[in-house]
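Reviewers of the previous submission asked for a worked example of the structure-prediction workflow described in the proposal, so we include one complete record here. The input consisted solely of the amino acid sequence. No template or homolog information was supplied to the procedure at any stage.
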Amino acid sequence: MSFLLLCFVCFLLRFLRSNNLLDAFAIGISLGLAILTKATAYLYALPFAIWWSVNAIRPFDVKRVKLLALSLLIAITINLPNYSRNYNLFSSPLGPSSEAVKYTNDIFSLPSFLSNVVRNVAMHAQSPSVQLNELVTDGLIRFHTLIRMSVNDNRTTWPGTTFQAFRPHDHEDSAGNPLHVLLILFAMGCVLVKHRDPTVLRYVICWLFGFLIFCLYLKWQPWHSRLHLPLFVLFAPVAGLTISKLKYRWVSCGIMVFLMLAALPLIFYNHSRPLIGSNNIFSRTRADQYFANQPSLAGPYEKAVHVVSKLGCSQIGLIIGVDDWEYPLWALRSEKMRSTERIEHVLVTNSSAKALSKEDHFVPCCIISTQNPTLEKLTVGDFEYSRLWNQNPVSVYVIEPDSKLHPNKTDKDQLGSHIH
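From that input alone, the workflow returned the following structure tokens.
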């Protein structure tokens, strides 16, 4: 999404100078793919889209307006099938407002907005000093006392999480970017004081409003650092421009070298996929790397897929929780899948159950479940399933020999021998 958003802004800047049809096409494609990839692209792209639209109508330019409409049409067309599916399921083209937990703030006020702005910035203030981290956390608490809000107000905070400034760490979900934040603050100061180019100033304003909209709309999460990635990528041109204009060349080169050296520990000793050490990516199998962030699931998932493979079942059901890992099951199974195999969710209880076709009589001969691992039997439609294998949190169920119907004779014979 960061790459596609950067493409959108890049072609937008080119279009402001060229009024080129090809750039208009590129704007529509990159914007459409960005918002299709991840919904936070709407928040970051909105200020740039407004800048682009205002430029087309002030002063009014028929050609620019037509190209603007073309770009928007392309972006909408790319997302139209997704909008249609979402509307049919959730009565909204943008999908559900929440899954297990609501993503958006429950309150929109100046204190809640300031709380989110400060916390989203402060989460990048990771320091090796325990005392400094405690000072940041204490400062945040004092600030929230001043604006009469809790630093962990449940109306603006992801449930079950609390704010705390941590020491720097190397996990991709929550590692902060303190050096880049300092560079951004320095570059923004230079833009306001020295740069007279109106395009640079408008770019920075759009970037800043993208961040503010993000803070206004979404609940704070400890994992927001990764959602900030597009902001850091989008600000890179401004930072590069600022560094290139420093008076002393050796200062510019020093900043660049320092940033590259600072990145090396995170590259070589990354928590999930390190290049160096006993757990490096070159010494682990592809299957092991699926579970880099949750290694305890590797054994149960791999054994479950092995059990299903031995059954020879061609119709496989899935019962997966809202935050359970589904992808590794597909990835592991794909190595052994036949072209005739089918994997579908069963016992669906959320809004997407409406998409199930009444004419589609899918009857799995076995079911992989990550829910209720102690459950001995399952009922899916008119059929009973018994638990054949279990290793917490995964279970494999097979259809009962005396169920009402069987998928096909071959599966029935194979399953019967394993059950007995």
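The first helix runs from residue 2 to 18. We consider this example representative of the routine output the project will generate in years two and three.
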